[in-house]
Amino acid sequence: QKEVEQNSGPLSVPEGAIASLNCTYSDRGSQSFFWYRQYSGKSPELIMSIYSNGDKEDGRFTAQLNKASQYVSLLIRDSQPSDSATYLCVGDSNYKLTFGKGTLLTVNP
Amino acid sequence: NAGVTQTPKFQVLKTGQSMTLQCAQDMNHNSMYWYRQDPGMGLRLIYYSASEGTTDKGEVPNGYNVSRLNKREFSLRLESAAPSQTSVYFCASSGRTGGDTDTQYFGPGTRLTVL
Questions:
Q1: Which of A41, B24, B27, B93 has the greatest number of CB atoms lying within 10 Å of its CB?
Q2: Number of helices (H), then strands (E), in chain B
Q3: How many whole angstroms separate alpha carbon A96 and alpha carbon A94?
Q4: Is B43 in CB contact (< 8 Å) with chain A?
Q5: Does A100 contact B108 at a Cβ distance shorter than 8 Å?
Q6: Do B101 and A88 touch (CB under 8 A)?
Q7: Which of chain A's residues have a Cβ under 8 Å away from the Cβ of B98?
Q8: What's the pLDDT tens digit per position in A81-100?
Q9: What's the Cα-to-Cα distance from B75 to each of A21, A68, B55, B64, B68, rounded to whole Å?
């Protein structure tokens, strides 16, 4: 059973702080990883993808991948109230995605 | 360019009734997917279609059937609805087939309640 486990949350940070979201995965065959954001009552939307070990930065977001440790993380710098959402860690194996259960992030003004 | 559209947005069924959820995409994507999302369970893949003319089971296919009507449309059918199928259903599409994954774009979802 392929699994993606996320830190359970909920996570609450003050505006302007760094939010750190983590997940681990069980399938060593997974090659690609994604972070999706889902606002309450809405559909998931992709915010970051990462395929290689190391860091990938996009604006305020940094994704980190460590395949040896089977670990993926997402850092959100200068967190804004509009970042308040559920963040889904997703692993891919043979073009089928396995979703984590999500971490609810609340950014307090 | 509407992306991925789903109909209906909301539906209430009685146990044993049947219905079809419709999904269409206008991005010329090869692959399409049906997921269900339940509280505390995350998104789980029901069925997918890697390309027009093919369909395969995902993690939770029991109680569902699918049809890839053409490249644009992928429908999900519940033949005899059960309360356990109360969920939010998402359709998604992506551009690639084969071993690479491209970004999956999600529709707005269908909220289904089975009484």
A1: B93
A2: 0, 11
A3: 6
A4: yes
A5: no
A6: no
A7: 95
A8: 999 999 999 998 766 788 99
A9: 35, 39, 11, 10, 7
